[in-house]
Amino acid sequence: LIENLSKPYFDIGYFSVQFIIDSNEVIVNEGDQFILSDIIIEPDSIIKFIPNSINRIHDLLGSNYSTNTLKSIINSILNELDLRMFPLVQGYLNGIDFTDNLKLADSIKGKNKCKIGLIFENIKKVNISELNFIGLKETSEKLLRVASGISENDYYNSAVGEKIKRRISGLNVFSNVGDPELYYINSDIDSTRKDTLMSKDKKSASIIANESSNASTKYGLQLKVTENNSNSFDGIIGLVPDANSNEPIKIFGSIKIGLKNISGTGRNLSAKWEKLQNNSSELSAEYHEPFIFTLPFDFNLSYSQTQYPSTNFLTSYVQRYINSWGEFYAFD
């Protein structure tokens, strides 16, 4: 009971709170609220990588202790280290030291003070040795490797994971693209063995394994995907005989065909035919070729043909267009 009562007070710096419990009531003596006198980061070698967090810590010194503020500081440090390509770092509270023997500004002398220790582990950069895709049925893995924009031994962090997911989703051949999952391959034990890394709260990547610190480690990245139902057909056709002339039966209607991810290559082909009245029809087709010669360049070709009905001023005529264009992917 006392522990449950104490926690809300401890979380906002009332570490000397006392509870007097009798049969009828609980008397609370909060005591003084403790202030942050210092935050010690270990190892200190990471300080050069986290200038924004260090500035924030300096601004917090002399303010009231708060567990939520402390968690925010840890997350800020983890995010800055992640931007510097250290995605596996874990941060912990390494203890709270209550002391009066600290050199502080005159404005906070005489108050209850506490010094916080933070420790960070697994400070290492990660190179991707392999890239795997789970859930492929028809789609070529080669296409996804090119689309991902990542090469073997590239550095990895959560921002890279977000970019890879966005690029794979941009192919429009999957109904779902999961978050990238980082795993390690223990080359000292078995080059084919894959183990998961310790769970970590990251914006774009889930890290799923427990690493042996004594082993030589290589890292891989995997994505789970769900393929779309690639093809579509929609149409209606009507046959109309003309009883007032010797012309054959006339055909009216509308047909739409869509072929996506042809043979798992990411190629798309669509076609449309429509005729709703005499002397008027529309025919169009479009083809999409992604990543020509494995380069980040897409090629598109389209054809359209429209027959316009006759009017009081013009006879029926046909207009045709052929268009082609390319798209270059400037990978960020």
How is this structure best described in words?
The protein is α+β, with helices and mostly antiparallel strands and 332 residues long. It is 17% helix and 41% strand. The protein has 5 helices and 17 strands. It has helices at residues 2-10, 51-60, 67-83, 141-148, 158-169, and strands at residues 18-21, 26-29, 35-42, 90-98, 113-121, 128-134, 174-177, 181-186, 194-196, 206-207, 217-227, 231-240, 250-262, 267-277, 280-289, 297-308, 317-328. Strands 6, 7, 8, 9, 10 and 11 form a 6-stranded mixed β-sheet that branches. It is elongated, with a radius of gyration of 33 Å. The protein starts with a helix and ends with a strand. Residues 101-107 and 188-215 have low confidence and may be disordered.
How far apart are the first and last residues' alpha carbons, in Å?
Answer: 54 Å
Instruction: Give the helix tally.
Output: 5
Low-confidence runs (pLDDT<50, min 5 residues)?
101-107, 188-215
**Helix proportion of residues, in percent?**
10-25%
SSE-based structural type: alpha+beta
Q: Taking all residues together, what is the mean pLDDT?
A: 83
Number of strands: 17
Beta content:
35-45%
Order of helices and strands: HEEEHHEEEHHEEEEEEEEEEE
Largest sheet, strands/sense/barrel: 6 strands, mixed
> What would you report as the Rg, rounded to the nearest angstrom?
33 Å
Task: Specify the overall morphology.
Answer: elongated
